[in-house]
């Protein structure tokens, strides 16, 4: 399915969340800790998924229209880098959110829908992998940007109080943007595991097999 499929599906749900009343706009310590843990967990899961890969494994593509592990990691590095450099400053300068926004429902939709691989998404051209970096450099760039994302969540104030439109998900507050970034990593780690589960995925040579 195309990007518009997910956009329209979520667009039908999110306005309902804005109509509810009586929800706090303050980010609670428990919510912050939950997101910090999610950022760490999704980073660690990605690290485990790519640990020890050979060059052939990094570059293997299950099909002509499928991404390799290297391409997936590059995509993650590009997106998280854009979030750090472009989106984070905009969040802190964006307008305050709507009173009565049902933030918990929107949080739940993000956590359920973004990692769901049953809905396929076509990436926008600006974050499509092009082979601009080696796999190792892509991964290092991702790790550096993820550290910045963690620092942003740890230090930013009033993330619930600012709303910025997401290209696929519509208006999200700053905390929800962070959730979406982590959920995006979870989604693509699942994609990497799908690639690695392909029956034609290269087997890493053993020391005994090297000449």
List the helices and strands and how they pair.
Blueprint: H1 3-19, H2 29-50, H3 55-59, H4 69-93, H5 103-113, H6 135-155, E1 163-166, E2 170-173, H7 174-196
Antiparallel strand pairs: 1-2
Q: Could you describe the 3D structure shown?
A:
- The chain has 211 residues and is mainly alpha-helical.
- The protein contains 7 helices and 2 strands.
- The protein is elongated and about 55 Å long.
- The protein has one domain: Four Helix Bundle (Hemerythrin (Met), subunit A).
- It has a two-stranded antiparallel sheet with strand order 1-2.
- The N terminus and C terminus are likely disordered.
Features:
211 residues; mainly alpha; two-stranded antiparallel ribbon; 2 strands; disordered N terminus; disordered C terminus
């Amino acid at each position: 399915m195309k990007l518009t499929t997910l956009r329209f599906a979520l667009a039908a749900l999110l306005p309902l969340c804005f109509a509810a009343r009586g929800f706090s706009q303050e980010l609670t310590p428990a919510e912050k800790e939950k997101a910090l843990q999610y950022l760490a967990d999704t980073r660690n899961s990605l690290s485990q998924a790519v640990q020890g890969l050979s060059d052939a494994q990094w570059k293997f593509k299950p099909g002509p229209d499928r991404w390799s592990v290297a391409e997936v990691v590059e995509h993650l590095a590009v997106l998280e880098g854009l979030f750090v450099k472009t989106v984070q400053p905009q969040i802190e300068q964006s307008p305050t959110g709507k009173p009565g926004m049902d933030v918990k429902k929107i949080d739940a939709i993000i956590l359920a829908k973004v990692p769901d691989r049953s809905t396929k998404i076509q990436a926008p051209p600006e974050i499509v992998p092009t082979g601009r970096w080696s796999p190792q450099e892509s991964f290092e760039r991702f790790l550096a940007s993820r550290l910045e994302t963690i620092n942003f969540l740890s230090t930013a104030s009033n993330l619930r109080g600012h709303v910025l439109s997401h290209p696929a998900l519509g208006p999200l507050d700053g905390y929800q943007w962070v959730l979406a970034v982590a959920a995006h990593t979870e989604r693509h780690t699942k994609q990497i595991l799908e690639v690695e589960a392909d029956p034609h995925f290269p087997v890493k040579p053993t020391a005994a097999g090297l000449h």
